[in-house]
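Hi! If you just cloned this repository, the fastest way to understand the data is to look at a raw example. We've pasted two of them here, unedited. The first protein comes first, obviously.
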Amino acid sequence: MRKALRLLAAALAVPILYLAASFGLPLIPGPGPDLSGPPAHTIGLLQGPIHTDILFPLTPDTRARFVFAEAAGVPVTHPDAQWLMFGWGSAAFYTTAGTYADITPSAVLTAATGDAAVIRLDVTGPLPALENLRFLTLSEAQYQALLTQVLAAFASQTALDHPGFTGLDAFFPATGRFHAFRTCNVWLGETLRASGIPFGLWTPANWSVTLSLDWHLAGLAD
């Protein structure tokens, strides 16, 4: 009986510790290079219920770096395209989640226990004012480092043979593995920190990203 109770306590401790860490660790600055400097570029972070996309302004330099996506039907050079949307996530989960009603239990289980990663690219025109859209102003060095980091996340610049969601998007093979302790939001934090952008130590959930963003933007305002 005591052994069963200990096993039950251990099983309950894992999600409790995970949840506590998802609130506490985003407020602890993670390690990263100091690439601070005068403000030079603005990026967007578009948060959904469980996922965050990075939005890059489609400048001539950005269009040239991502021009390979044209072959997959992502119109990065179209004059009406103003922002490039970049997301990293679980292959099983991400490629089926056109809406949250599309998500299957098997996709959730695969994502949680370990899955190949994919990148989704999309474009959009002018950005409306949205409550879930935040902006970060970066130095030239931070911006160039971030572009380098996201381009290095492509395992291949040839798109997957899989339909997108908008008719303007495509999925690409990505480096790394997705699992419960390295979610899309953890990847986001790792990538921002590696680019010299202050961010929390571990950000597994959407609320973790929000906490880290609030902390970062509050620090800039001080």
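Ok, and the second one:
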Amino acid sequence: MNPFPLAHAALIVVDVQPDFMPGGALACHEGDAIVPSLDALLRARRFCHVVATQDWHPRGHVSFVDAHPGHAPFAQISLYGQPQTLWPAHCVQDTPGAALHPGIDWSALDAVIRKGSDPGVDSYSGFRENHGPHGARPSTGLAGWLRERGVEEVFVCGLARDVCVLWTAQDAVELGFRASVLWDLSRPVTPAGDATTRAALQAHGIGIVGSTAFAG
């Protein structure tokens, strides 16, 4: 019996945008390498539901190093009592670098979750923004959207593996979903942290699988 499309499962494609590719404002290590295989997976329609997240920052966003004179890119500061990395300006709203990657056929998408649009709050996870001035992590609405459609399990891929993919998978588990990361369809900011990322995923009970599991 053909198991596809997977019932009660969703694919979450995290931040596959030009600014996270080589030559972009905040390039991930080999970020463009996932594009052909991800395109093939989306065209194969293996999941009942497919959601993409999209970093969507206003100019002068609080996470941008330019908003903090005297600091270097990738410096760590405290923001609302939590550690905050200061990133190069990236994925600015309505710029080419913020678009969903044009080399992928996105017609399988059911929804796009834009995150990071609050100028004063960063947002890594597809499910919840980072801590803001009031302490709580506001919902993006993704969890409710998935539950309304009977989704019980999510498979997460995209960029960056050690930041937004990781946070999205961790939040999925904390919000009651089973979760796995498609390791070969994700890339980190830097591969030096891959062992730490694997350990963090395993500590949360998140599966680490390859996209070949969804071959026809």
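That's it. A detail worth noticing about the second one: Residues 6-58+94-214 form a domain with the Rossmann fold fold (CATH 3.40.50.850).
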